[in-house]
Amino acid sequence: MHYPDSFSQITQVMKSSLIRELVASTKNIPDLISFAGGFPSPATFPVQQLAELFNEVVKNEGSDVLQYGASEGDILLKEQLMKWEAYELKPEEMVITVGATNAIYYYARCLINPGDVILCEAPSFLGTLVTFDALEADCQSIPMDDEGIIMDALDLKVKTLRQQKKNIKFLYIIPDFHNPAGISYSLNRRKEIIRFCIDNSIPILEDNPYSRLRFYGEPLPTFYRVARTDFAPTNIVTEIVSFSKILGPGLRIAYAKGDKELIEKMVSWQQKVTITPDCVAERVVARFLEKGLMDAHLKNICEYYRPYLQKMLDELEKHMPSSVHWTKPEGGIFLWLTLPEHINADELFIEASQHKVSFIPGSKFYPEGQEKFNTLRLNFTYSTFEQIEKGVRSLAELLNAKLK
Amino acid sequence: MHYPDSFSQITQVMKSSLIRELVASTKNIPDLISFAGGFPSPATFPVQQLAELFNEVVKNEGSDVLQYGASEGDILLKEQLMKWEAYELKPEEMVITVGATNAIYYYARCLINPGDVILCEAPSFLGTLVTFDALEADCQSIPMDDEGIIMDALDLKVKTLRQQKKNIKFLYIIPDFHNPAGISYSLNRRKEIIRFCIDNSIPILEDNPYSRLRFYGEPLPTFYRVARTDFAPTNIVTEIVSFSKILGPGLRIAYAKGDKELIEKMVSWQQKVTITPDCVAERVVARFLEKGLMDAHLKNICEYYRPYLQKMLDELEKHMPSSVHWTKPEGGIFLWLTLPEHINADELFIEASQHKVSFIPGSKFYPEGQEKFNTLRLNFTYSTFEQIEKGVRSLAELLNAKLK
User: Fold this and answer.
1) DSSP secondary structure letter of residue A331
2) What is the pLDDT of residues B134-189, one digit of tens each?
3) A–B: how many Cβ contacts below 8 A?
4) Contact A54 B58 (CB under 8 A)
5) For position B10, what pLDDT does the model report?
6) Which of A236, A268, A273 sits opposite B16 (nearest CB)?
């Protein structure tokens, strides 16, 4: 058998996540300083607590958690999540999934026919873009300013697409400490977008892995919460919350909250794709929340990360040419750099690798044909202070040489 | 938003697993004896060993297993699986997934365009049929005898479909202790099918959750092994092995072995759908194998289940009317009953529920429009001896009354 001849059409043409390829391309460089990945620091994993909880849960509840679980997710975890969120939420408005990408896949699978439009931010998270691409969606990106998607651009894009008889299925948004752009939506912009989407019947998919990683300033209500409090009753927002950045990505636990009928269909997809998420991990997260460990843990993570963000901001300030600009986020795990228009970060990536420093070129975060090339993403949670110092200096030296 | 208006076409029409609905329909009947589900007995879960392993793995390898893992699966688990299987297998010929259904989904997703044909057994596993259905495949079923799919019927079906210009993408087979039919393929039939499929360029998807649950007799080589030993070199078979029935379904760990290019595409789908399986569970299974715990554990499970199978066979023999026939498997978790032609097991299901006994009507295990109604599936691994005794007697009384 020569399998490629039998591959389905989409399997033949779909893309891989270029991030993995980029990271792989620098894998064998010794002493490489990498700001490329989106990995949390292992120092933030509550290893001891989780080790004990895994032991307890399997020992005491083994006949339950080692058995098949519900396709909609563990009801005990749902109960804890409802308490944690402090919403008036019903269990049937929630589905637990194998990480956030899994929830995004089911959401999009529920709504997208080939050729349907997904509105997304420019830039947006590459991992999600390749998932949308594999569902044959037409991703249309909209530029952002420091407060989020620009309203006029959104309005124009929707008008243009509708004139072209395109079927706009939803708007994909990352509300806080945006990956890769580092910005957070202002409260006002959140309201404007929800108002616009209600008026134009465009559902919002809110992908929220980072909002609890706030090191400074006051938390903002999520789109989901704003929609429920200021625009109630509306089911326009579906929010996805992940435990990957606040407990550990290896657990593969996230959940989606939204309209009951939509959630029911997401569950129906889950039944066909994985049957159920990992039941042991679900229960461990439930017990972690039930024992009230989350608040102190989140405080620890934020205190741990804060100096790394500060260090990177300080080093950029110290070394970067004045024509380079960057976001100053109050949390999350990424910074976004904007270089002078004529500098191509794809080329810079190759040169930087030779100088033993790595990042993700910004062009990778746009739908195909809609790229911007003078941007790049830096992660600050997976390096030591020394690596941040040395890596940012190397990058600045390269840029200074180019801009001389 | 009224979401159903926006659902994608397939989401609007796809079916749910009727088993869940049937099981749900009898949920509130007190003292119901259920032979309906496909659950392993919790008594077979190695709770103590797994509790310790989870603790050890998270404590000692937390910074690794709580981090993002590889989309193709944990390399340490792959190494253990290769030793366990004792194949000459390369890691890139293997992908680890969130249970077997997940591997089946990726395999079919790689090959199926809407309308493509999947050949399957009549009867076949309902959970898989709804997954194929959600991919808009055209499932065509082929009758079986005690040794597996009937060769003449397979030949005729393939000829007919090809005359109709249908695109046959693969043959889906459950080799041992078939769900629901209880049969195992004879060695000769395995060879005949592989020969036929090579000659006709039809890949084989071998779904193998049960072969290690053998209580009597000698194990048979899987299709995958036969293909590699007797027909080498051929990449025609992809085998999926699950830990759900031999360790615990809650762990959600299975793996697929097959052609390198096909596996690579399955990994690419996994990257888009879940990113990676649960990394903690993967490592726990790896350590379970590495410590050599599996052999003794499998021996324990088989010794545990054997008397339950025997009990059900004995009770059927004692009470059933002579016009009822059933499979006598040497392992697995199901029996398959064939009733006289005029008895409809869908109707019997409702009457039986009123008599506090439950099963799955056989009609649920055929593609739509290809049903047989005088069959039913009994599970023997989730009831006590007393329940088996009482439940089979109730069922026999009902049938005796009907056949008077």
Assistant:
1) B
2) 999 999 999 999 999 999 999 999 999 999 999 999 999 999 999 999 999 999 99
3) 263
4) yes
5) 94
6) A268
Preceding amide of B233 cis, omega within 30: yes
How high does pLDDT run on average in chain A? 94
B274 to A98: CB separation less than 8 angstroms, yes or no: yes
Put simply, the answer to whether B54 touches A52 (Cβ < 8 Å) is no
CA–CA gap between residue A388 and residue A379 (Å, rounded): 10
Q: Do A274 and B98 touch (CB under 8 A)?
A: yes
Does the B3-45+296-403 domain belong in CATH 3.90.1150.10?
yes
**In 3D, which of A216, A281, A280 has the Cα closest to residue A247?**
A281
Q: How far is A224 from chain B (nearest CA, A)?
A: 14
Contact (CB<8Å) A247/B67? no
Considering only CB atoms, B8 lies closest to which of A51, A111, A131, namely A111
Q: Check B62 against A68: CB less than 8 A apart.
A: no
pLDDT tens digit string along A150-183? 999 999 999 999 999 999 999 999 999 999 999 9
Which residues from A are below 8 Å from B63, CB to CB? 42-43, 45, 47
Q: Which residues of B touch A115 (CB under 8 A)?
A: none
Q: Is B284 left (phi over 0), alpha (psi -120 to 50) or beta?
A: alpha
The percentage of residues in chain A with a pLDDT greater than 70, rounded to a whole number, is: 100
pLDDT digits (tens, 9 = 90+) for A256-291: 999 999 999 999 999 999 999 999 999 999 999 999
Instruction: Name which of B7, B59, B203 is nearest A51 (Cβ-Cβ).
Output: B59
Residues of A in Cβ contact (< 8 Å) with B68: 39, 244, 249-250
Of B20, B45, B277, the CB nearest to A62: B45
Where would I find the beta strands (DSSP E) of B165-203? 168-173
Q: Minimal Cα distance from A116: which residue of B?
A: B8
pLDDT at A25: 73
Contacts of A16 in chain B (CB under 8 A): 268, 271
Is the confidence at residue B375, as pLDDT, over 80?
Answer: yes
Write out chain A residues lying below 8 Å of B9, CB-based: 113
- Tokens 């989140």 correspond to A298
Give the pLDDT confidence of A44-79 residue by residue, as tens digits: 999 999 999 999 999 999 999 999 999 999 999 999
B311 near B389, Cβ under 8 Å?
A: yes
Q: Which fold has domain A3-46+296-403?
A: Aspartate Aminotransferase, domain 1 (3.90.1150)
> What pLDDT sits at residue B37?
85
Contacts of B58 (CB under 8 A, 6+ apart): A47, A50, A51, A54, B65, B66, B280
pLDDT at A30: 85
pLDDT value for A38 = 86
Task: Provide the Cα torsion A129, A131, A136, A139; round to 10°.
Answer: -20
Closest CA to B278 of B44, B4, B40, B54: B54
Domain ranges in chain B are 3-45+296-403, 48-290
Cβ contact (<8 Å) for B134 and A52? no
CATH architecture classification, B48-290: 3-Layer(aba) Sandwich (3.40)
- Least Cα distance to B348 among B275, B392, B279, B399 occurs for B399
DSSP string, B242-287: ESTTTT-GGG--EEEE--HHHHHHHHHHHHHHTSS--HHHHHHHHH
**What is the average pLDDT across B370-381?**
94
Contacts of A250 in chain B (CB under 8 A): 64-69, 278-280
